[in-house]
Amino acid sequence: DQQVKQNSPSLSVQEGRISILNCDYTNSMFDYFLWYKKYPAEGPTFLISISSIKDKNEDGRFTVFLNKSAKHLSLHIVPSQPGDSAVYFCAASGWGKFQFGAGTQVVVTP
Amino acid sequence: KAGVTQTPRYLIKTRGQQVTLSCSPISGHRSVSWYQQTPGQGLQFLFEYFSETQRNKGNFPGRFSGRQFSNSRSEMNVSTLELGDSALYLCASSLGQGADTGELFFGEGSRLTVL
């Protein structure tokens, strides 16, 4: 059963603007969350992560926010750049489980 | 250091055949996990191996199997191929057991087409 959900299959954003990707999970045993980025014909690459003891983690243009009570996390990319066009996967892990969301295709337009 | 290597990169099979995919993890990594990616389905977990033992298994039929060797290299096998098995199969390695260490390093995948 799908316990990590990315409800937006695609997102289009203008270069320089903020991209916000959302992810929801249902299993409260998950305690570590990650975002992966995937270009066509390549494997996913790790982008940023957050532990359940934090509510925000920032790395350059990428910030991940975690709302444990809502079982929701989001990835903010600001400013968005053309090279950010890719599929972004949210993942959750904990207690022997590791699950990915279905992914969100981000297209950054000039 | 070298990344995760998957072979073959592309292959075409017909229904009923079987296929074996290979994965060499990053040197020193002992955990290898396999994922199936199909459009709209994201990355579906197949199984994870650590120290030659299967530690976790996803919800796939018994036609999907795998193993890990003493050098941490892993193979996955799909028997009696079906059209729906057409997908990108991704292998990922990590230092410890993937589910607990969190960060996985992926190979480029093996693209399987079943005709």
List keywords for this structure.
heterodimer, A: mainly beta, six-stranded mixed beta sheet, B: 115 residues, mainly beta, seven-stranded mixed beta sheet, 3% helix, 52% strand, globular
**Biggest beta-sheet profile of chain A:** 6 strands, mixed
Number of strands of chain B: 11
What's the rounded overall pLDDT mean of chain B?
A: 90
Task: Return residue spans of chain A where pLDDT drops below 50 for at least 5 consecutive residues.
Answer: none
Report the portion of residues of chain B in β strands: over 45%
Ranges of chain B with pLDDT <50 over ≥5 residues? none
Q: What is the overall pLDDT average of chain A?
A: 93
Order of helices and strands of chain B: EEEEEEEEEHEE
Backbone CA Rg of chain A: 13 Å
What structural class do you assign from the helix and strand content of chain A? mainly beta
What is the subunit arrangement here? heterodimer
Overall, the morphology of chain A is: globular
Helix content of chain B: under 10%
**Major interchain interface with per-chain residue totals:** A-B, 25 and 26 residues
Strand content of chain A: over 45%
Helix percentage of chain A: under 10%
